[in-house]
Design brief:
The structure is a single chain. The protein is mainly β. A five-stranded antiparallel β-sheet has the order 4-3-2-1-5, with no helix packed on it.
């Protein structure tokens, strides 16, 4: 996943529609509160959704890439 990719959120629960968004930033976030063993780093992305006016932070593994910006 890279900046400029067109994405959908992976879940469609609660009657929501799958509106596309564009990735503005990708980064790793350290979840120090996790208790399981292994890596506590998670890939995160800042996404501007076209149907709302603010950006949102999401785990990269919860996003589906529709179109890559390459």
């Amino acid at each position: 996943m890279q900046v400029g990719d067109l994405v959908l959120h992976g879940s469609t629960g609660r009657g929501t529609t799958r509106n596309p968004g564009i990735v503005l930033k990708v980064y790793d976030y350290r979840f120090d509160h996790l208790t399981e063993e292994g890596s506590k780093l998670r890939g995160m992305a800042t996404v501007q959704w076209f149907h709302i006016s603010t950006t949102m932070e999401h785990r990269q593994d919860r996003l589906e890439v529709l179109s890559e910006s390459r």
